[in-house]
Design brief:
single chain, alpha/beta, Rossmann fold, two-stranded antiparallel ribbon, 7 strands, 46% helix, globular, binds adenosine monophosphate
């Protein structure tokens, strides 16, 4: 197994890219830290209870809490798989924890989208609570309004996708996650794609870069 990290602001399209390319290639496994955490919150596990407040406020949950979840997923992953890590690491401490897990890092791909485009993207974002597919009311609408193409569930707006919380999430990204760009550049692992080309071209650019 090896790992490709998707780096980028909330709403940059990391999840859309990872779910698109992994659905077409069984060797790619999409692991979203946000989905793991939302799953734990929905199930009411101890980890979910501990994470909920920070998530609702657009802040990061404790490093060890999310790192343990990622470690568990890595432990249960077998075979010749490239894991597309979406949303982890989110700060330098988490990057160090990941390194200590010992799985080879293939590359880190920054999905670059200007801040101005992010707020609009998140405002139009709709998510499937069942299969986690992502949509956008204009850029990537479902075939039937409000209904997931893949599993037929009713689409929802994520609780932390409201404009106030989005501002806080962007601040957290700039302050805590952006330092990872320099961190991975120094290690010679960083690649960059323009994340503003539409879903199909974004995915192609990602595959070519990773
Ligand atoms: P996301 O779906 O990646 O935007 O994540 C949603 C929320 O989950 C974030 O705003 C954080 O509260 C939390 N979260 C996701 N990944 C991490 C992480 N690696 N470290 C800390 N908190 C995280």
């Amino acid at each position: 197994m090896n790992i490709v990290i998707l780096l980028g602001a909330p709403g940059s399209g990391k999840g859309t890219i990872a779910s698109r390319i992994s659905s077409e290639n069984p060797q790619l496994k999409h692991v979203s830290s946000g989905d793991l955490l939302r799953g734990a919150v929905a199930k009411g596990t101890e980890a979910g209870k501990a994470a909920k407040e920070a998530m609702d406020a657009g802040q990061l949950v404790a490093d060890e809490l999310i790192a343990t979840m990622i470690k568990d997923v890595i432990a249960e992953t077998e075979g010749d798989v490239t894991m597309l890590l979406d949303g982890f690491p989110r700060n330098v401490k988490q990057a160090e924890i990941l390194e200590a897990m010992g799985v080879p890092l293939r590359s880190v791909v920054l999905v670059d989208v200007p801040d101005a485009a992010i707020e609009d993207r998140i405002a139009g974002r709709r998510t499937c609570p069942e299969c986690k597919a992502g949509y956008h009311v204009r850029a990537l609408p479902p075939k039937v309004e409000g209904i997931c193409d893949k599993c037929g569930a009713k689409l929802v707006v994520r609780k932390d996708d409201n404009p106030e919380t989005v501002k806080d999430r962007l601040k957290v990204y700039h302050a805590q996650t952006e330092p990872l760009i320099e961190y991975y550049t120094k290690k010679g692992l960083l690649r960059r794609i323009d994340g503003d080309q539409g879903p199909v071209k974004n995915a192609e650019a990602f595959l070519a870069a990773m």
